[in-house]
Amino acid sequence: MVGGSEQHEQWLQPELQLGQREPAEQQHSYLWVRGSGCLRIYRLACGRVDEKVSYHHLLSSITPQSMNLLNDIFAAYYDARRNKRNTESQMKFEMNLEHNLMQLYDELRLRSYRPSPCICFITFDPVQREIFASSFKDRVVHHLLFNYIAPLFETTFIHDSYSCRVGKGTLMGVERFEHHLRSCTQNYTRSAYVLKLDIQGYFMSIPKRELRELLRKEMDKKPQWNKMIDRGLVDFLIDCILLRDPTSDVRIVGGEEDWEGLPPSKSLFRSTKGTGLPIGDLTSQLFSNIYLNQLDQFAKRQLHLKHYGRYVDDFYVIDTDHRKLARLIGLFRDYLHDELHLTLHPKKISLQHCSKGMTFLGAYVMPYRRYPRWRTIRKFRFRMGQIEQLCSREKALNRRQVLFLRSVINSYCGYLGHFKSFLLRKVAVDRHAFYRYFFFFGGFYVAGLKSVGVVMDEVVSIL
After folding, report:
1. Distance (Å, rounded) from C-alpha 369 to C-alpha 365?
2. Which residues, at least 6 apart from 226, have a Cβ–Cβ distance to it below 8 Å?
3. pTM (2 decimals)?
4. Fewer CB within 10 Å: C terminus or N terminus of the chain?
5. In b/e form, how buried is each residue of 126-157, taking b as 16+ CB within 10 angstroms?
6. For 397-418, how does the pLDDT look when each residue is reduced to its tens digit (9 = 90+)?
7. pLDDT band at 65; cut points 50, 70, 90
8. Over residues 313-327, mean pLDDT
9. Does the keyword Transferase apply (predicted)?
10. 353-395: per-residue pLDDT in tens?
11. Residue 336: which residues within 8 A CB-CB, separation 6 or more?
C-alpha cells in the first residue's frame, strides 16, 4: 500500500494537493491509503486529490484482486527505481508519482495499457551493442510481470543457469565453472577438456510465437500458481511486451556511424519479422533464460552431462574424453537448429585442455587460480589513474566527491579481490595521492575514508 500509518496519510494528502505540476487527461482514478486500522479512499484528478469518497461508494469496483494489483504495482515501482533514482526518466515519473501509478493501475485493470516508444542507441562498452531503452513506466510493468512469472519458472531452471536469477550472476558462474573443473579433474589430478560454445545473434533470433507458446504451456502446468494470480492479466502483459515490434515506433539516439561495424545478427532492425527481443529490457533477460532452459534440459536429461553450465547464450561442458566433447558439437548444433531455430556460432567453438586455461564471464580460469581478463585490468588501471589525478589537485575535494571516489575504488578492488590480483591492486592504489583521502585495509580490498583535507562545498561532476 501507499502508507501504513496516520502520519504518512497526513503527509500524503497535502503533497497531492500541491501536485499540480503538469496537466493530465481529465479522468478519475482512486488512491487507497491505509490509516490507523482503516482504509481511506481518495479520488484523483490531474494528479491531485479531488475529493474523499466513501468506501461504500466504490464497493462494487474494489475487489481483493484489484487491491492486490495495486500492491503489486507499488512493489514493481520500488523494484524498478532501485539503482535508477538519479536518472531523468525516473525523476520525471516520480514528480507526478501518485497520478502515474494510479493511471497505470487503471490501464492494467481495463486492459488498455500499451507500451510507450523506446529509445534506441549503440553502446561500445564493453562491446558494440544495440540497446532499446524502455520508458520508466514500461520498466515498472516489466518488473510487475517479472514478479509474477519469475518464481514459477525458477523452479524449472537447472542449478547451473546463472543469468537473471536472484542470488546468482557472473561471479557465481565463474565459481561454478571452477567447481566443475576441480570436480571433473579430481582437484587437478586427472586430465580434462573444456568445450565452450556460443549462439550466434541469440537475442535477435528468438522466435516470439514459439516462446509465447512455451510460456503458455509451462503456466498451464501449474494450477496452484494460476489460482494465486490473475492469469488474464499475465497473458495480457506477455502479449503486450513480447509480441510488439519495438522498431516500429522508436526514437534513435546517435548517428548512422554508430551502427557501422555492427553485425546484422546483432541488430533488431535487420532481424526477421516475428523474431528478436530488445536488449535492455528485464523481461527480455527472463524470456531468453526461459527459452534456453530447453537447451539446459536437453543437456542434463537427454545427454546426461554432469559438468555443464550456461550464462545467457554462452555455455560449456567439461569432460575427461575430448572425443565425446567433439561429438557434442554436432548434437548441440542440430538441436539448436531443429528444435529452437537458433544457430551455433561457427567462430566461437573452443575445445582445449584445462591446463591451457579458459575465459568465462570475464575470468581466466587456470588450475588452482583465476585471473581477471585483460579488458577488466585495462579499465581498472585507467579508472585508478583518473582518481589519482583528481586526488593530486591542489584544491581539496568535497566530502561527497571523496565518498563517490571511494565507492569506485571499493567496487573495483572488491571485484578483483575474487581473483589472483594482489599486485595489480597494490601497484594501482598504493600511491601518495590516494593516501591524502583514503587508507587501505590489508590486501588492498577496501578503502577507508580519512577526514583530513575533506571540505564541504558544492558538488561538481567528476569522472
Report:
1. 6
2. 219, 220
3. 0.79
4. C
5. eeebbebbbbbbbbbbbbbbbebbbebbeeeb
6. 888 899 999 999 999 999 999 9
7. low
8. 95
9. yes
10. 999 988 999 899 999 999 999 999 999 999 999 999 999 988 8
11. 199, 295, 342, 343, 344
Partner residues linked to 195 by β-bridges: 317, 351
User: How far apart are alpha carbons 30 and 101 in whole angstroms?
Assistant: 10
- In this model, does residue 216 exceed pLDDT 70? yes
Residues 115, 138 contacting (CB under 8 angstroms): yes
* Inter-residue contact 429 to 413 (CB < 8 Å): yes
Query: Can you give the residue ranges of every domain in the chain?
Result: 6-112, 132-365, 373-449
pLDDT per residue over 220-264, tens digit each? 998 888 888 889 999 999 999 999 988 888 889 888 888 888 888
The number of beta carbons lying within 10 Å of the beta carbon of residue 6 is 15
Model pLDDT, residue 263:
87
Query: How is residue 236 written as a grid cell?
Result: 495480457
Beta carbons within 10 angstroms of residue 456's beta carbon: 8
Q: Which residues 6+ apart lie within 8 Å of 394 measured at CB?
A: none
Instruction: Determine the Cα–Cα distance for residues 250 and 227; give it in Å rounded to an integer.
Output: 37
Return d(Cα 405, Cα 411) in angstroms, integer. 10
The three cell numbers locating residue 51: 475529493
Angle, CA of 282, 283 and 286, to the nearest 5°: 95
CB contact at 8 A, 343 and 354 = no
And the C-alpha cell for 179? 567447481
For residue 66, the model assigns a pLDDT of 53
Report d(CA 163, CA 313) in Å as an integer: 10
User: What is the spatial distance between Cα 256 and Cα 120, in angstroms, rounded to a whole number?
Assistant: 12
Q: Taking the CA of residue 238 as centre, how many other CA atoms within 13 Å lie in the half-sphere pointing to its CB?
A: 22
